[in-house]
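Board notes (copied after class):
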Amino acid sequence: MFYAPVLFKTLGFEDDASLMSAVVTGLVNVFATVVSILVVDRFGRRVLFLEGGIQMLACQIGVGVLIACVFGVSGNGTFSKGLGNLALALICIYVAAFAWSWGPLGWLVPSEIHPMEIRSAGQSINVSVNMFFTFVIGQLFLSMLCHMKFGLFFFFGGWVLLMTLFVYFFVPETRNVPIEEMNRVWKAHWFWGKYIPDDAVGLSHKSSGHDA
């Protein structure tokens, strides 16, 4: 988001147009985040993660193909007005998908999946890792764009695919699940259940019963 004006200018937008396009994507981000707030408890976390991941992947591939066709490996080319608007639309659709799925849920779900005993430590690690990779990407994005060109969008698209597959196979639904019951959810999971001892579920159940 913070490199949006540079990205649009790189794609051939004029200065005013690149700044206005960045404003448009920012507004899309705000409205899509509101959508997430309204629907997350109705449809659940996994649905938004998976839908958002698929939408983000499609947009990454679309922008990558578009830039490859116009600029090629040399990086020389010019977007027509129609293709420029198409690129802007794809980026806005991508931003919307991120803002109602991976953006806010990347903070919400970690706060729901950790048992009470390790919740503070788990959240601390989550925030630290998030900030670290935000810093790394922020420092490297422009250099990667210059060297990888359209390949950068396929690179990030590959990561989006891995993230979405990880959620599909390994992240349980946490909607309407009390934190005290998360050990039971993990125990019932086809993969993580192998690593959750039976007494952890029992302790979780006793803790919730005591609190009640």
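Comment from the instructor: DSSP finds nine helices and no strands in the chain. The radius of gyration is 20 Å.
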